[in-house]
Design a protein that fits this description.
single chain; nine-stranded mixed sheet; disordered N terminus
Length: 242
Amino acid sequence: MPPRGPPVGPDMRIALVGAHGHIARLAGPLLQQAGHTVSGIVRNPDHETDVREAGMEPVVADVEQLDVGGLTRLLDGHDLVVWSAGAGGGNPERTLAVDRDAAIRSMDAAQAAGAERYVMVSYAGSRPDHGVPQDNPFATYADAKAAADMHLRESSLGWTILGPSRLTDDPGTGAVELVTADGSGRPAEGFEGGEVPRADVAAVLAAVVERPRLAGTTLVFNGGDVPVDAALDTVLDGRPDA
């Protein structure tokens, strides 16, 4: 693999974990069009064709099974890591193994591999006081994501966390309602969760990749009326020292 380039601009090498997911396959072409080389990391070799058709170079690896050393080797040579993987619910043990433990190992590995930036695809309610009752099947996922997100915030990576509201398969509009969240993931006052098309989440992800000054920011959003680029630039305008 060629040496790493700068952590912004065209020709970045991006490792996208969970590359067969809906959001990842929508983001892949956007990242390719921006001039980046994307390693699409998938567990199932049967997904290689789909990943390649989405503009990514498929890499087969089971991140659930790899330790930090294995993940470091996997991520070596990449400028930016995107985590868009998940266990898919249904099995609490696997949810913790993937959404919490493997995600955290990938952050430690990204730092060890020299990747300067990390983008986490999370969800709007992710925070330690998420409020999901422990007898709710969603609680394990909420716990896992909260732990992973907090570990990322405490890392030395240039991190950005994406917190979309309920995902839909509606056509993307290219516009969002976006707010920032505090250090625990709680969104700014007045934000109420709604829904957002996966295509617009992919658009936000691709736009964040081009904005390294969004490091240290949690972005919570619904579908809305403000074009994605304008919404992100408004956040940057409010961070003159970022």
